[in-house]
From TrEMBL:
Residues 1-61 are annotated as: Disordered. TPR repeats lie at residues 149-182. InterPro entries: TPR-like_helical_dom_sf (IPR011990), TPR_domain_protein (IPR052769), TPR_rpt (IPR019734). This is TPR_1 domain-containing protein/TPR_11 domain-containing protein. SMART domains: TPR. The keyword Ribonucleoprotein does not apply. Keywords: TPR repeat. It comes from Cephalotus follicularis. It comes from the Eukaryota. Pfam families: TPR_1.
Amino acid sequence: MVVIEAEESVPIQKQSSSSSSSETPILNVGDASDGFETASERDVSDEEDQPTKSTAFQDALNDDELKQKALAQANDGKLEGNKLFGEGKYEEALLQYEVALQAAQDMPESVELRSICHSNRAVCFSKMGKYEDTIVECTKALELNPTYMKALVRRGEAHEKLEHFEEAIADTKKILELDPSNDQARKAIRRLEPLAAEKREKMKEEMLSKLKEMGNSVLGRFGMSVDNFKAIKDPNTGSYSISFQR
């Protein structure tokens, strides 16, 4: 059973104007008459300076409010995506996770939420049999959170589906680094290593076959083939020499 993550909702902190004004004074009026600076020594009076400070403070409040709204929208998108996934509506779930990602993009406060959305998108693609897309989404999740265990597991499974056995082994070994007691990962490596060796041997044979075809296409013009050439290994030096045979 594939579990979509729903537990990590980013908390939305409401900030009242009363608490903000008590913690951050807009202007320290008493400081202007402490003798360090007089009105005649200044180009701008205290009264002229006050609106500038107030505007900067208000801009900071507005920026924080916009961030909170964006995080709320991202949370809502993730939750709606989880709901749609549970109903088997994977295409619709993908769109909702994308909404969440767009709402929270480039916000340091949303790193965890974005990594979860990418991982959940990976599960959707996996359910749809789109394993290349699964790998892409898992990789994005791991760029945000390199120790994200579920993303490593999902990417390793997708690699195995595509017969990328070397890559699957690499992800599984990373899982063991993070969790040395993970017996399932250890068993997966034992299962994957023979498959990887078999694929390497098959690729080697295919490459040699292609090289032989290329050689024969050239040598055929001279009435010869690569079978006329034999590689003989020197038992003393381990080097090879080529002999021509008709």
